[in-house]
Design brief:
alpha/beta; TIM Barrel; Lyase, Ornithine Decarboxylase, Chain A, domain 1; 8-stranded mixed sheet; 8-stranded parallel barrel; 13 helices
Length: 371
């Protein structure tokens, strides 16, 4: 076994398996098809573990569509806020369905989509999101068609639609209420569609989520309109499966103890910074213990992962495991400050660690210029 140096993202096979079992229960009992949202998680080295439980992938670009086709297989859905003509030529090779964001994109590219099923994204004007930044129904949102006349005009070209209206929604009652509103508003179209994707952003693998009620809602919706329902889990598929494993490089003090680790929030867990959220750490206690701020080593003044009360006093060289580091992390890692990019590793159920990816100085250099 190769010794892996920190930092690295460590995917736990057992935990991934537990999430997959939850997804499979929803899929089997509701009849919905599940497509992994590659924008959230695209570490394809573990796709063999996910494939038996899911129906394919959904993408946001040509690269993602191609990656999904090549590494996951099954059904490949494509959606992008805007395609170029070049994109469509390439995306249509790898996709079963292309979902267009606007009527003008659909009208422009429909003639080139002869062998592909087309859909349209509808923006229902309602959403569940605690973050304006990620709210698809935010004021002046460009995400999807809002006018009924545009949907009517799209009907001869499409057999279905995508309505993504949730972000980290763990409230089944809120989901049910919004879907009921959507059902009323778009009944005339839903009756004519063959399929509908309800997008991602629903926390159905969290323990407190009422999955039985969710299954019933999906079944009723699908039966009422005779629709094949798709879900596009990203975060739900991989939440709680992965840690960012780091080493304490230094401990400094400025009115509090600050442990500096060999990673960076900006470069390696960017979403925490974007959404102003705090990381959680393994080995902490809710009260008592030894209090530290865990900070990154980039030059950014607020490169701070979060605060934690650790069971033991931290020492230089200690390992800090930053939790929940799968979704929107590896896909967003960057070379800020030229920092060593975390490797990606998989911890097998027997404890063996397989290295899926390692970045070198040459990758950094190549990412900026090749001559
Ligand atoms: C269209 C669409 N589908 C799926 C997802 C995946 O969402 P999540 O990772 O929150 O499940 C997103 C996330 O923004 C999305 O925009």
């Amino acid at each position: 076994m190769k010794k892996l140096s920190t930092p690295y993202y460590l995917i736990d096979e057992q935990k991934l398996h537990e999430n997959m079992e939850k997804l499979a229960a929803i899929r089997n009992q509701s009849g919905a098809k599940l497509l992994l949202a590659l924008k959230c998680f695209a570490a394809w080295g573990v796709f063999d573990l996910m494939k038996p439980y899911m129906d394919g992938t959904t993408s946001s670009s040509y690269y993602e569509a191609r990656l999904g086709y090549e590494t996951f297989g099954k059904e490949t859905h494509a959606y992008s806020v805007a395609y170029s003509s070049e994109d469509i030529k390439k995306v249509s090779v790898f996709s079963d369905k292309i979902i267009f964001n606007s009527l003008s994109q659909l009208e422009q590219f429909y003639p080139e989509c002869r062998n592909v099923t087309c859909g349209i994204r509808i923006n229902p004007g309602v959403s569940y999101s605690n973050f304006d930044l990620a709210n698809p129904a935010r004021t002046f949102s460009r995400l999807g068609v809002t006018a009924m006349t545009d949907i009517e005009a799209a009907m001869p070209m499409v057999s279905g639609a995508m309505i993504h209206f949730n972000c980290e929604n763990d409230d089944v009652a809120a989901f049910e209420q919004m879907l009921a509103g959507i059902s009323r508003k778009y009944a005339t179209f839903l009756e004519r569609f063959d399929w509908i994707s309800l997008g991602g952003g629903i926390s159905y693998t969290e323990d407190h989520f009422d999955s039985q009620q969710f299954i019933q809602i999906l079944k009723n919706f699908s039966q009422n309109f005779g629709l094949q329902v798709y879900l596009e889990p990203g975060e739900a598929a991989v939440t709680h499966t992965t840690s960012l494993v780091t080493t304490v490089l230094d401990i400094v003090e400025n009115n509090k103890k600050i442990a500096v680790v060999d990673a960076s929030i900006e470069a390696h867990m960017l979403d925490l910074l974007v959404y102003r959220e705090s990381a959680t750490f393994q080995g902490t206690v809710s009260q008592g213990g030894f209090s530290y701020q865990i900070a990154g080593r980039s030059c950014l003044a607020a490169d701070i992962f979060g605060e934690g009360n650790f069971q033991n006093e931290l020492q230089i060289g200690d390992t800090i495991m930053i939790e929940d580091a799968a979704g929107y992390t590896m896909v967003k890692k960057n070379w800020f400050n030229g920092l060593q990019m975390p490797s990606v590793a998989l911890m097998r159920t027997d404890g063996q660690i397989d290295v899926l990816q390692e970045s070198l100085y040459t990758d950094y250099k190549k990412s900026l210029s090749t001559q």
